[in-house]
Amino acid sequence: MSLASGHEIVNLEGEELAKQEKDWKGYTEGLVRLTPGRWLFPATFRDYADKYYKFKPRTSDVVLLTYPKCGTTWLQEIVWTMRNNPNLDNPMAAAPVNARVAFLEMDILLKTKNFNIGPDHPLMQGFKKMCPGKDPKDGVFLQMTQCSPEPRTFKSHLPLSLLPPDLTDTAKVVYMVRNPKDAVVSFFHHSRIFKNHDFSGTFEDFVQYFLDDDFVYGPYWLHLKEAWHRKDNPNFHFMFYEDLKSNNMEELKKLDTFLGTKLSQEQLENVAHYTSFSEMKARDAVLGTGADIFFNLDIVNKDGGFFRQGMVGDWKGKYTPELDAKMDKWIKTNLGDLGLEFKYGV
Ligand code: A3P
Q1: CATH number at residue 222
Q2: Model confidence over 29-48: pLDDT tens digits?
Q3: Is 3 within the bounds of a domain?
Q4: How do residues 164-208 score in pLDDT, each as one tens digit?
Q5: What is the domain range of residue 17?
Q6: Looking at the domain assignment, is residue 345 inside a domain?
Q7: Which of 126, 166, 208, 304 to pair with 137, CA 20 to 30 A apart?
Q8: Domain count, the chain
């Protein structure tokens, strides 16, 4: 079957599928592979792929793109606060960030048998309020993205080749990347706490999936390269998690210029404070109503929730020397002469 994006999509079968299903208990409806690119997604992607590709961007949209675990939630809170709450007086800020900054393709992750969201769940209540009269079967998150009040800020982890081809001609796009060693450690934790992934293998197994480019939302490098090649487009802002961490105010100023928000120094300081790791962690409502639908709460209670470390260099000590050497080789090979450099922390 061909997609509107030009990719061929096939179900993962045989040994390949059996291997994934052994380690990833959350992908209960199987997986699909796309060519070119070898993109891997839960099979639910098939139902939505063309809708994402044909999504109509608006000139007032700001679209936040990342590979998973590269600091999307942080970026969401920063950009939404810059655009909507620089004086920290907007009552909308009380809602969780994912209710203010929609997640375009979340339907592909939630439409699994692990999830049984009833009409009384806060998520469905939010959907009904934001999209009155709409049918959840047509995509809860897709429609929440469409119905978001203007100016819309929304996020996606999809690679550019699966998003609307006119995206960067129309909307403003921010892409943030994080060094792969920290991103992998963060993704390992994420994949264990979230039931829609439910990863049950070891850290070594997890890293190997990455090295084999055999990973949902992957390949990591192709995702990154598609964005890097767009970096000189005036509607495209490329940034690094590590820079946002070490030169926070400087990066906020660059974002302010790119977004055209024209914030004062005091407003920028409001944004920096409100979106710091400690403030966001303190506001985290992970264990609120309905959390057990999404989280393996025993792992959250033992190893921590979504806001884990929020630092650069946390990967140190997590990889065996052999695994670290493999990562270094993989990174060197894939970086080639791209002209892109990561910071790994001191
Ligand atoms: P760690 O698991 O290393 O702590 P995403 O939002 O793309 O899923 O990325 C999540 C990662 O960003 C997590 O990394 C999380 O702790 C980190 N993060 C979230 N908010 C942050 C903040 N305000 N400052 C720094 N890191 C943050």
Answers
A1: 3.40.50.300
A2: 899 999 999 999 999 999 99
A3: no
A4: 999 999 999 999 999 999 999 999 999 999 988 999 999 999 999
A5: 8-338
A6: no
A7: 166
A8: 1
